[in-house]
Amino acid sequence: MFTSSRVKLLVVTCAALFMAMLDNLVIGVALPAIQKSFHASISDLEWFMNAYTLAFSVLLIPFSVLGERIGRKRMFLTGIVLFTVGSALSGISESSIQLILSRALQGIGGAAIVPLSLSLVNSAFPPDKRAAALGIWSGISGLGLSVGPLVGGLIVNGAPWQLIFWVNVPVGILAFLFGLRWLPEGRGANKPINVPSVLLLGAGLFGIVFGLERGNADGWGSPLVISLLAGGAALLALFYLWERSRKHPLVQFELFRRPKYTGLVFAGFWMNAGIFCAIFLLTLFLQQAQGNSALGAGVREMVWTGCTMLAAPLAGLAVGKLGTRTVLTAGLLLQIGALLGFGLQILHLGVDFPFGYMVPFMMMAGTGMGLSFTPISHGLLSSVPESSEGEASGVSNAMRELGGVFGIAIGGLVFQSGAAVQSPADFGDHIVPALFTGSAMILLSLLSVIVFRERRRHAAHRAQAANEIG
Questions:
Q1: What is the DSSP string of 203-254?
Q2: Of 365, 361, 384, 363, nearest in space to 373 by CA
Q3: What is the pLDDT of residues 231-261, one digit of tens each?
């Protein structure tokens, strides 16, 4: 049941989660004001965004594993402190380098908050209520990520840009104080932290993520990008080889022998790739092709995010009755249909059409996201032993974050191919193939679920046959 102690836990974890997810994108609409304040270069602007993303994505797995060892509550509260201090330092920054370092500190804190909030929620609820609780968690996560541009636009339109960071401080302080009182401590497998493993994994992920972020700006054939991607891949390969010889590995690769776990990890990667590809470009479409302000685009996208917020908790209830695969399949099909619909609409109508024409597809996309987040999180955590839940949460979130970066990079690559964009009509011509690419990525997410489900079924049949023979 949703007892008072569990409701309090949800309030604390979801408040911190919303704060961390919001800061992924909230700074975007404030970049012009920050550039004017600091006389910042384009490279500085990129680092204001990248510092958070890089720190966040690289440390998700190490912090989730560390939480299993020293305590989920302790690590979660540490993340809140780091994030809150980083927010305050961002608000008082007087130079580009100060803001970049402060944003990195925010990312470090966020990397502890996100996976451990999921572990805390999952472990606090009994199996029959877990899907509903994770539905609420997923809805808050999706909402925080999606409304970042809107919140940033509302603040920057009427207040100094520093306020987008200061709003986090009272939330962080309250979440920390209430978390001390309301959150139970919990631990998973108590295994030693292998420093070489952490360094290899962190450096490998850094190379891959940074290489993807720099690909469109520097050119995919540039020495820097090739070196980052190749070096990152090589380090991850070394990490795998190193882990195979460890008695207590940082990442249990044997978990990937579980078809359900593997299928959902890859489904999360491809879903985030496709949907981030679409959100990134459609936000620009509303502004650059249809002439809306950043705030106006954010308000219109509330159709999308509102449906995500409503659908995610309902998905938690549906999972209990219909199962993970059915709800997830429905969510992915809605997202595929929505992106195809956007693309065909722009292909046939151009860019000059009423916003109302986009509303049905935004509702489909938002509902599909809400129906997908919850079954992925619930199904993945239910597929591993309780002692491995923290690690599974970290791996899943890291893969989804990597998928988002990958999707934006590939979407940008497809969008920029061909002639230069010089008019709104050109923008429409370029966004259509990118939207179709996004729908293809989500189709790969659906195929991941189907393929690994079949592997799971075959494995079950083989086990049953072996038992009958025995």
A1: HHHHHHHHHHHHHHHH-TTSHHHHHHHHHHHHHHHHHHHHHHT-SS-SS-GG
A2: 365
A3: 999 999 999 999 888 888 888 888 888 989 9
d(C-alpha 81, C-alpha 448), whole Å: 37
Q: Does 457 score more than 70 pLDDT? A: no
pLDDT value of residue 189:
66
Q: How far is CA 142 from CA 24, 112, 137, 213, 346, in A?
A: 11, 18, 9, 22, 26
Place 459 in a pLDDT band, splitting at 50, 70 and 90.
low
pLDDT score at 463: 46
Least confident of 72-81, 116-125, 134-143, 425-434: 134-143
> Regarding the domain with residue range 252-470, which homologous superfamily does it belong to in the CATH classification?
MFS general substrate transporter like domains (1.20.1250.20)
Give the fold, CATH level 3, of 1-190: Growth Hormone; Chain: A; (1.20.1250)
What's the CA dihedral at 112, 20, 146, 445 to 10 degrees? 0
Tokens representing residue 376 in the block: 């992925």
> Hey, what are 446's tokens?
């659906």
Query: Is residue 448 within 8 Å of 266, Cβ to Cβ?
Result: yes
CA distance 102 to 27: 13
165-183 mean pLDDT: 95
CB 395 within 8 A of CB 264: no
Annotated domain spans of the chain: 1-190, 194-249, 252-470
What is the C-alpha to C-alpha distance for residues 291 and 339, in angstroms, rounded to an integer? 21
For the cut 80, the answer to whether the pLDDT of residue 157 exceeds it is no
Q: Which of 123, 104, 111, 101 is nearest to 75 (CA)?
A: 111
**pLDDT for res 316:** 87
Q: At what angle do helices 4-22 and 127-146 cross, to 10 degrees?
A: 30
DSSP 92: T
Reading the block at residue 247, the tokens are 């008695």
| 70, burial (CB in 10 Å: exposed 0-12, middle 13-18, buried 19+) | middle
